[in-house]
């Protein structure tokens, strides 16, 4: 079995990096081959742009979707995108390790989605959601936040965590993944020591607890029940939810 | 009066660029000075990273929040961030023009949030939400999507647009903005001509309709009722929603 960890944090000594190492160790102990895409360390370019497509379908007007499709067909995808896709093709489980910045993933990780999940190659109009390319595989977000857990409930000050993570979870659903409920490390305050948890006994204790939680969750990666999303059977021919489908609301309100 | 348009699309002949021009023309006709931050054309760097902070508060361990705060205090913020902040300080209205990519803003625009809304300089623990730096100013997202409007309702195939835009709207609320309901141009299919609407009569007609809608909405920028978010009066001392506060759910379900 294979696990891919997509890691997004600029600081090698961060809480996030420590959790990445916990994820890698845990999955190796379970017998997995583990690969890490360390986006900052690799200098990944998160900006989808014409410069990635020297062989254009349309040299005059740039459309990301048109060029992704064309490059998929003609085997001219950028080398870094090809590398990430090869890792994804191997991975039974994908772990995303990142901090919440501005109520979402950092730009570096968002751009990984923009560039790597290529139109044509990895999805088409009919090959999405529960018919998506990666159906049967699993994905999980392991996320740090900078505020206490209590502030992330419905209407809470920091924003409902189930709403903040909804878009990235839906993107993973779009690609066919079974998405596990996220592992949340709240209150990772860089104000308390600049993420230098190594030098701070209280932070070191918090980190140890978060590491235990992550390791326990990953140990159950095959048996945990995935989050619920609507799929093809739930939509009519206009892409609208059929009457009587209730899984959707339950998910949006039930994730935190 | 001043308007800042933060524009995020790689193609100068795109639908998005045309809507940006409509926004600029509309606001100039209303007597505004209009500035455009064209993120792709300017080569904006969306990656928050150590390289932006030559004068570090902590040279050993990088924390974005710590370094933003330090650079704000010591007037060593990066030149591009200082320029964006100066534009924001002038702007009575900020218009964000972007396509939905992977259920959110493109990485280029997400990184503008990550880098420009600096800790210390533009917000602190107590200077947020309805006490935020930009309180009294207004912001609006003008957004294109690649699928029909019907698919963006609750449980719809493309994802509920009110959930997809919730994080970016909440970030604007966090900074103190009154956030107007978004202007949505659905079904902008690059598959139909690679965004080259100039060459396609049907697309040109759609674009004209979207331009009219955007111009009409912007003409009412001062009088439209902003979206509802919880604020300081709605939270207890733990940052949890007080009992009996109902505006939150109304917003989440009512935006589309």
Automatic annotation (TrEMBL), chains A, B:
Q: Which Gene3D superfamilies match?
A: 3.40.50.360
Report if keyword Oxidoreductase is assigned. Answer: yes
Which residue ranges traverse the bilayer?
A: none
Q: Where is the Flavodoxin-like fold domain?
A: 1-191
Q: Establish whether keyword Oxidoreductase is in the entry.
A: yes
Q: Which SUPFAM superfamilies match?
A: Flavoproteins (SSF52218)
A single GO cellular-component term on record: cytosol
Give the EC number(s) under which this enzyme is classified: 1.6.5.2
Keywords from UniProt, A to Z, are: Oxidoreductase
| Coiled-coil blocks | none
Gene Ontology MF: a single term: NAD(P)H dehydrogenase (quinone) activity
The family this protein is said to belong to? Belongs to the NAD(P)H dehydrogenase (quinone) family.
Know the name of this protein? NAD(P)H dehydrogenase [quinone]
Q: Which organism is it from?
A: Burkholderia cenocepacia (strain ATCC BAA-245 / DSM 16553 / LMG 16656 / NCTC 13227 / J2315 / CF5610) (Burkholderia cepacia (strain J2315))
Which lineage? Bacteria, Pseudomonadati, Pseudomonadota, Betaproteobacteria, Burkholderiales
């Amino acid at each position: 079995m294979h696990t891919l960890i997509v890691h997004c944090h600029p600081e090698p000594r961060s809480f996030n990096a420590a959790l990445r190492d916990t994820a890698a160790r845990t999955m190796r102990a379970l017998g997995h081959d583990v690969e890490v895409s360390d986006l900052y360390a690799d200098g990944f370019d998160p900006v989808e742009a014409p410069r990635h497509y020297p062989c254009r379908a349309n040299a005059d007007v740039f459309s990301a979707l048109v060029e992704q499709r064309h490059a998929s067909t003609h085997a001219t995808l950028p080398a870094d995108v090809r590398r990430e896709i090869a890792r994804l093709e191997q991975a039974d489980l994908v772990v995303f390790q990142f901090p919440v910045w501005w109520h979402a993933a950092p730009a570096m990780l968002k751009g990984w989605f923009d560039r790597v999940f290529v139109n044509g190659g990895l999805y088409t109009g009919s090959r999405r959601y529960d018919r998506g390319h990666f159906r049967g595989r699993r994905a999980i977000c392991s996320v740090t936040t900078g505020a206490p857990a209590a502030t992330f409930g419905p209407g809470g000050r920091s924003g409902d965590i189930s709403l903040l993570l909804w878009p990235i979870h839906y993107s993973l659903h779009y690609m066919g993944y079974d998405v596990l409920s996220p592992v949340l490390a709240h209150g990772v305050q860089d104000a308390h020591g600049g993420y230098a948890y190594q030098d701070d006994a209280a932070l070191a204790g918090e980190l140890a607890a978060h590491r235990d939680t992550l390791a326990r969750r990953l140990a159950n990666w095959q048996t945990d029940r995935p989050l619920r999303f609507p799929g093809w059977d739930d939509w009519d021919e206009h892409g609208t939810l059929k009457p009587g489908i209730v899984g959707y609301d339950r998910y949006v309100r039930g994730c935190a």
